[in-house]
Amino acid sequence: MNADPVRSILIVGGGTAGWMAAALLARRLERQPISITVVESPDIGTVGVGEATVPAIRDYFRAIGVTDYEVMKATQGTLKLGVEFRDWAGPGSSFFHPFGLYGTSSRGVAFHQYWLKRRAEGDASPLADYSLCTELAMRHHVMTPPDNPPNELGVFDWAVQFDAGLYARFLRDKATRELGVKHIEGLIVDTSLAPESGNIASVTLGDGRVLEADLFVDCSGFRSLLLGGALGVGYQDWIDWLPCDRAVAIPSEPDGSLAPFTRSTALPAGWQWRIPLQHRVGNGYVYSSRHISDDEAVAALRANLEGAALAEPHLLRFRTGHRDRFWHRNCVALGLAAGFLEPLESTSITLIQSGVERLLALFPNQHFDPALAEEFNRITMLEYARIRDFLILHYYGNGRIGEPMWDACRALDLPEALAHKIRMFRSRGTMVRYEWESFQDPSWLSMFVGLGMLPDAYDPLADHFSGEQLEGAMLRMREAIAKTVALSTPHAEFIDRHCANRQG
Ligand SMILES: Cc1cc2nc3c(=O)[nH]c(=O)nc-3n(C[C@H](O)[C@H](O)[C@H](O)COP(=O)(O)OP(=O)(O)OC[C@H]3O[C@@H](n4cnc5c(N)ncnc54)[C@H](O)[C@@H]3O)c2cc1C
To answer: Is 82 in the pocket of ligand 1 (CB under 6 A)?
Structure first.
């Protein structure tokens, strides 16, 4: 037995972050004598958005012992094969960021190098033609990602899209009914610190109840009640790199098309999301308040809805960035209490997941060795910065000439790590990989190519094959993809068969 183990965890907040943390901590610590409690205020409520995810979410589902289909059924969920970007490379443009690979590599040379060589020789076939995932998505078809695909052509994954409120409820039921998590409703009005250590000792509820714990997990949303509030940890703002600071969301009636992806359409002062669920379509306009007023943003979103609105507009303000530290003393912040990267690539939920995993990997005892917090903060900081750079690329590479917000984005002074990545890709398609990247080469490739940031040359090793040899090989790849697509199922039919929620 380790000395002085943590005996109690208090999770402050019952949104997606609070319940994701509660379920995974309870599952992994089930044989430890630790009590886990979630406290939330029904008067404050949750942020109420956060509907799209990335494929890593499937690891989370497995870790807490649920299947994709169970989650989707409980949350009116749909599948997501990637993100369609409309009008980012210029009005009328469109490309897809798939959750899968392009083509097959050969002799240690990535496929896109052969594609670049063929392109230089006059072959006009788009990169997307070599992505099974893109082909499926464009047809609104899906199939189960294979566990052991015969070659790289079959490699893809899916994520899910869900109703955020139903997702938190699903996790709450799982955590409280099966995993022994305690649930308290009440408004926290005060926090006390231990005089010597400066650790959080307890929180006090409006009705006078005092809740003590060894470890506090701050999932209180943008308020950051414990880390930002009680412990006074500051915030790094990234607005100079990522211009949007507001969003308006309006759900609309489903139009029956059930696309298996999120759509992001660039607009003059930001971009609009479209996330089809079983019972409704989630829509939102993420915008820069320096370039459009709230009223204008609401009107623009209303005008773009493809079905009747199902609710009044929900306005949200945010500051892209993160706390100076994520773990301080005996408090770890997760979710919006830790930071927020705007939802362009749906990365907040995955950051919650990796945060809980990291907390478990560095789980403290009651002495809270500062080295553990330091390591947690070092990695989390890098993880945020890598995602930030991926998002900046979306804005920086835009082709919307003559619109003030977008013109300013093309002139951005980039973080050096990103500038280096872009230089290397532009020189001859070389992909630079850093530690703690959430998005791998194919994701970066889809953005570089989709935004038209093509290299001037290609890897000389691609010249191992003649143009004729490559032409034949690439034709066979397209044929193999077409054969696989022929075995796929329309998304709507797939949902109906595996995870339809008939209550919507
Ligand atoms: C416009 C927008 C779009 C987004 N889209 C996506 C997306 O597509 N994909 C994605 O991954 N993420 C997305 N996100 C982020 C996502 O919504 C959040 O990461 C996720 O919902 C987690 O929120 P949370 O649990 O940290 O905070 P919240 O949902 O705000 O929950 C905070 C909790 O703290 C409690 N609380 C606060 N103060 C007190 C108090 N004094 N006493 C007691 N309890 C208190 C509240 O009751 C609530 O339960 C989006 C965010 C925004 C703003």
So the answer is: no
